[in-house]
Design a protein that fits this description.
Layout lengths: L2 H16 L3 E6 L4 E4 L1 H7 L3 H4 L4 H4 L5 H13 L4 E3 L25 E9 L5 E10 L1 H7 L2 H5 L2
Antiparallel strand pairs: 1-2, 1-5, 3-4, 4-5
C-alpha cells in the first residue's frame, strides 16, 4: 500500500468516526460489527461494549420481528430500506444534545439501511445510517404534539 493510499484510508476512518451521523454495521444475524463516534456520543454506549452483541440485546426496545422484516430487502434484494421519523420517531433511543430542543426525551431520526457487498459480491452485512432530524421534526409539529412526544 502506498503512503498516499494509507493516508486516504486513515482519513476515511477518521471521517467515519467523526461524521455528524450515526453509522452501524450489522451482520445477517444482527450482531453489531462497527459503531461510530456519533453512536457512542448519543447512545452513551461505547463501541467495545456493543461490538459482537445482538442489536436486540443492546436496544431491547426494537421489535426484532419488525426490524428483521424491514431489513430483508437489504440482504435479499440488495436495495436500501428507509425509516423516516414521521413513521417512527426513532429506531435507537438516543439522547439529543441540542440546547434548543432540551425539552424532548429523545432524538428524532431518519434511518437508511444500506447493503454491503463483500469482494465476492455477496451481501452478508448492512450498514445503518442514523440522521438526527430533531430540529426538522420540531419545526413541523405543533407545540401540543411536541409536548405529548
Amino acid at each position: 500500500m502506498s503512503t498516499q493510499d494509507f493516508d486516504q484510508f486513515h482519513w476515511m476512518l477518521d471521517m467515519v468516526q467523526h461524521i455528524d451521523m450515526g453509522l452501524i454495521v450489522l451482520d445477517r444475524d444482527f450482531h453489531i460489527q462497527m459503531w461510530n463516534g456519533f453512536m457512542i456520543h448519543h447512545s452513551g454506549k461505547h463501541a467495545k461494549d456493543v461490538q459482537g452483541r445482538s442489536l436486540f440485546d443492546v436496544f431491547p426496545e426494537i421489535n426484532a420481528s419488525w426490524f428483521r422484516a424491514k431489513s430483508q430487502p437489504v440482504f435479499e434484494l440488495r436495495c436500501r430500506s428507509f425509516i423516516v421519523w414521521q413513521q417512527r420517531p426513532y429506531l435507537f433511543r438516543c439522547r439529543h444534545v441540542r440546547p434548543i430542543t432540551g425539552q424532548l426525551p429523545f432524538m428524532y431520526q431518519n434511518i437508511t439501511m444500506h447493503p454491503m457487498a463483500n469482494t465476492r459480491g455477496e451481501v452478508n452485512h448492512m450498514f445503518i445510517s442514523i440522521q438526527d432530524v430533531t430540529n426538522e421534526a420540531l419545526a413541523s409539529q405543533s407545540p401540543k404534539a411536541i409536548a405529548s412526544s
